[in-house]
Design goal:
18 strands, mainly beta, two-stranded antiparallel ribbon, Porin, 10% helix
Length: 376
């Protein structure tokens, strides 16, 4: 009996030791690699729009991406590969590759997928391509080098991590400000309510600079209250080809206020000037403002309203000295976690006859549109 008891005890001890060793080995964390943090996301939009003026050219004048009348277009199909970072000492990157009927052709930067001489763009673009590092300085000094979207404006080009309340883009977005910059961006968070960024870039929508000077910009991000955010932006530098002396300046203020669980209000303003673009070497200026309101009726349905005014009194941005106004109503349905259906009912007005009306021109236009967004 004693031998059996001894053998049984030895077997129990051996099993327990083996189990403990196995548990210790399984609890040892697996070795992590930098590429484990790489994420892949996508975004696509298919849209259709109709102009009640029925322009003979089939083109919606002064629109940004919704240019074709009565056409179904794949506006954008985008793939985003990145290694996001948030801790001092980390290295990361982001590449946004996009193809489509209009978005790449409109927003492409000169010298990358837009010919610097002819201005011709392609159906493909690298909307963003940058490397990032957070220097171990204070709370962390973030440095981004490459091509990135502009900090100006309430509206965005759109992607998996951000899309607009309205389907069509406003005049301010399309004509008042740049789409992208190429260069260096340094950002620092001073507190929970104050952050700032400094830009040293090629200028407006230039991969390769068109002159010998750079543009300098600054942004202040303020959060006075948990539901209120304000962005103040300024950018200045020469933007004309082979001209390093005549400067273009742009100033903008954007604010977002979440008034309640269901209501979000936004505002966007800008003012720009450019030297030496008018006869006699005079400066041109433009300005504008837009207001936004979104009401969420349920988890699946919302309505958004946008009103805007864009004053291009010298014609420096649209090619015609005019004042533009628009009003846009957008219903939105979430069809699922990764799918959104929305459409616009939009009216545009100008104090000049700039909109096609069949074979003639007029000062107003009404359009409707429908778009399906897929994101993951």
């Amino acid at each position: 009996m004693s031998n059996r008891l001894l053998k049984s005890s030895l077997v129990t001890v051996a099993w327990a030791s083996s189990a403990s060793l196995s548990l210790a080995q399984s609890s040892t964390p697996a070795e992590s690699h930098w590429y484990d943090d790489i994420t892949i996301n996508g975004f696509a939009e298919v849209s259709w729009s109709h102009d009640f003026n029925s322009p003979d050219s089939g083109t919606n004048a002064l629109r940004v991406f919704d240019l074709d009348d009565d056409e179904v277009d794949v506006d954008a199909a985008e793939l985003v590969i990145q290694r996001p970072i948030g801790t001092p000492g980390e290295l990361g990157f982001r590449v946004d590759a996009v193809t489509g009927t209009h978005v790449p052709k409109v927003s492409a930067a000169s010298g990358l997928f837009r010919d610097s001489d002819t201005g011709e763009a392609h159906d493909f673009d690298l909307q963003q391509v940058l490397g990032s590092w957070i220097a171990p300085v204070g709370s962390g000094l973030r440095l981004d080098v490459g091509k990135f979207v502009t900090p100006f404006g309430y509206e965005v080009i759109e992607g998996y991590d951000g899309y607009n309340d309205n389907q069509s883009r406003g005049f301010l977005f399309g004509y008042g400000m740049p789409f992208t910059h190429t260069g260096l961006r340094a950002g620092y968070t001073f507190s929970e309510s104050v952050g700032a960024s400094l830009l040293l870039v090629q200028g407006w929508d230039n991969w390769t600079d068109n002159n010998d000077a750079k543009s300098i910009g600054v942004q202040f991000a303020l959060t006075p209250a948990p539901d209120w955010t304000v962005y103040l932006n300024a950018l200045g530098g020469p933007e004309q080809a082979d001209d390093s002396h005549d400067n273009r300046y742009l100033y903008g203020a954007t604010g977002t206020w979440r008034a309640s669980e269901t209501v979000t209000v936004g505002i966007d303003t800008l003012y720009g000037t450019e030297e030496g673009v008018l006869s006699g070497g005079k400066s041109a200026s433009w300005s504008g403002g837009a207001g936004y309101c979104r009401y969420r009726f349920s988890d699946t349905f919302a309505l958004a309203l946008r009103g805007e005014l864009f004053d291009d009194s010298d014609g420096a941005r649209t090619g015609t000295a005019q004042t533009l106004e628009s009003l846009t109503l957008t219903p939105e349905w979430k069809l699922g976690e990764h799918c959104v259906l929305r459409g616009d009912l939009r009216g545009d007005w100008s104090d000049e006859d700039v909109f096609e009306d069949h074979s003639s021109v007029t000062g107003s236009r009404t359009t409707v549109s429908l778009a399906l967004l897929v994101l993951f």
